[in-house]
Amino acid sequence: MESKNSETTVDGNLLVARSLVLAGVECMFGVVGIPVTSLANRAVALGIRFIAFRNEQSAGYAASAYGYLTGKPGILLTVSGPGCVHGLAGLSNAATNAWPMVMISGSCDQKDFGRGDFQELDQISVVKPFVKCSAKATDISKIPNHVFEVLSSAASGRPGGCYLDIPSDVLHQTVSESEAVNLLAAAENSRNQEASETVGNLEIEKAVSLLRHAERPLIVFGKGAAFARAENALKKLVELTGIPFLPTPMGKGLVSDTHELAATASRSLAIGRCDVALVIGARLNWLLHFGESPKWSKDVKFILLDISKEEIELRKPYLGLVGDARKVLDSMNKEIKDDPFCLGSSHPWVEAISKKAKENVSRMELQLAKDVVPFNFLTPMRIIRDAISAEGSPAPILVSEGANTMDVGRAVLVQTEPRTRLDAGTWGTMGVGMGYCIAAAVASPGRLVVAVEGDSGFGFSAMEVETLVRYDLPVVVIVFNNGGVYGGDRRNPEEITGPYKDDPAPTSFVPGAAYHILIEAFGGKGYLVETPEELKSALAESFSARKPAVINVTIDPYAGAESGRMQHKN
Ligand code: ADP
Q1: How far is CA 290 from CA 220, 271, 286, 296, 320, in A?
Q2: pLDDT, tens digit, for every residue of 190-239?
Q3: CB-based contacts of 497, cutoff 8 Å, min separation 6
Q4: Which atom of ligand 1 is nearest to the CA of 97?
Q5: Domains of the chain
Q6: 467 with 493: CB under 8 angstroms?
Q7: 312 lines ligand 1 (CB under 6 A)
């Protein structure tokens, strides 16, 4: 559609940017190049922040986490072909974690498709397994509608990834200013707000009655409840009923880990013995042992609260509540207030959970109290925990990945505020570290972000420390450096034969790698620490500076276990 009069014209690049602004997009992540550089520049000129990464994979992880943290789809912009393929990492991560995200990729010229064009790829087909919806703007007039369509689909119902494909010829097409205005207005008017299902009174009554009559009730919540911003309703439910609660790793902080009803430190007892479990915004997948015995009691009655009807149908719980976590919990709280019940601290179930938790915590504290040098995982984790706690409110956002580092960190580090923990998540994705840090810093300006990373996990996205420095983000990256995946070479030398027996082990990296110098190459601050005093001083200095920093912590290469707590799967 070419404009024929002398009126100002609007090209595809500008129309995408204007559509994004109209739809409320404030920030994009990506890597520019042919054919999307002009699109990024147009977006910036209209007030959208564009965070330029070194690789689409990290930018995609950032977009997915930004969607989770802000509740609005994170946007990833990529070039065609290989850029789109790199971006799939982020899109698939959004799909698996149920986070809202939109990937926008340029694609090759439509008339040259099938003839071996530059970066030619059938991108709509390759994104298919990872998207809720995809659209290709085959003509400039389709751009505004498609932008609104993918953004609304990504955030509605169970959130997820969506894809928009814009061929390079479409980015160069033009329409007149008045046509652009009409197209934008039409797209905005067609914006449909999908109403989420509401649970009926009868189901609310049933759920409350199950909890009321249970002998050993438990409340479990996950990152779906965090996404729903259900923290106040959840805290109210816990305090009204006195029922112990268990967060999933990213649910941590919705109700503070320090709350007296937290069952985190008595997890096995809580899930193994509860007779009714209200599970809110958390799937009964591998992270929750599929809700099956022997980890759970055979007779447990699950009440599942989830926005996704398919999820409820899949798990076949005793009672399913399809709806938004915050709204449904508000209704449950109202129902309870009308006829209150509360277990109280002397209830045998509450006492048992609390006693077990105290025992486990004191056992762990004994280990944590020791200053072990060369460092094991526990000593530096305790020092980091104390430094993070000393920050107070708003609590720093924690990013964590690695095997032992993430496992130990999950047990030791304390979450007191919602959405302050980002980790490898449902997909066990390694490589999310720097992308998540950047997303967190951009989503919550001024807030400190602390990454606690294994050296292997860090390596996947380490080049993005340049991005941290370039945007001057308040991110402190702590690398637990034990010289490899799981640490030192644990092979039996007698079993290593063949012509490559002298090669480094597949699990090994360069010993003593100077990761702290990596960030200094770009002007950031690096620290190498080997003792408790050195770590304390690096944390104090870097936390108060709120500037990009890498603290390279030397860990005994033989501390920790291969595959962390997932050894049964290796
Ligand atoms: P976790 O990893 O913390 O266990 P999951 O990612 O497995 O959490 O589960 C999150 C669940 O939350 C998903 O099944 C998703 O459909 C659901 N969910 C997402 N948004 C909402 C919401 N607003 N209200 C209720 N459930 C939600």
Answers
A1: 13, 12, 6, 9, 16
A2: 876 666 667 899 999 999 999 999 999 999 999 999 999 999 999 999 99
A3: none
A4: 6
A5: 9-189 (3.40.50.970), 201-356 (3.40.50.1220), 370-569 (3.40.50.970)
A6: no
A7: no
Probe residue for ligand 1, chosen from 248, 306, 315 as the CB with the greatest number of ligand atoms within 8 Å: 306
Q: Does residue 443 carry a pLDDT above 80?
A: yes
**Three-state secondary structure call for residue 422:** strand
Q: Which two tokens stand for residue 88?
A: 């799939």
Reading the block at residue 147, the tokens are 């932008």
DSSP label of 326: H
Q: How many other C-beta atoms lie within 10 A of the C-beta of residue 538? A: 25
Query: Does the CB atom of residue 156 touch ligand 1 within 6 A?
Result: no
Six token digits for residue 20: 């994004």
> Which DSSP symbol is given to 98?
T
DSSP string, 249-297: GGGTTSS-TTSTTB-GGGHHHHHHH-SEEEEES--SSGGGGGG-TTTS-
Q: What are phi and psi of 455, to 5 degrees?
A: -65, -30
Using a 10 angstrom Cβ sphere, with 0-12 exposed, 13-18 middle and 19 or more buried, the burial of residue 281 is: buried
What would the two tokens of residue 356 be?
Answer: 């077990």
User: Could you tell me if 161 and 132 are in contact, meaning their C-beta atoms sit under 8 angstroms apart?
Assistant: yes
Which residue has its alpha carbon closest to ligand 1 atom 4?
A: 282
Per-residue pLDDT tens over the stretch 10-57: 999 999 999 999 999 999 999 999 999 999 999 999 999 999 999 999
Ligand 1 pocket: which of 158, 231, 322, 420 to mutate (most atoms within 8 A of CB):
158
CA angle centred on 139, ends 138 and 140, rounded to 5°? 135
CB-based contact 441:467 (threshold 8 Å) = no
Q: Is 149 in the pocket of ligand 1 (CB under 6 A)?
A: no
Closest protein CA for atom 19 of ligand 1: 224
DSSP labels, 328-397: HHHHHHHHHHHS-----TTSHHHHHHHHHHHHHHHHHHHHHHS--SSB-SHHHHHHHHHHHHHT-SSPPE
Q: Parallel, antiparallel, or unpaired for β 245-247 and 319-322?
A: unpaired
Cα–Cα distance between 298 and 273 in angstroms, integer? 9
For ligand 1, the distance from its centroid to the CA atom of residue 549, given in whole angstroms, is 33
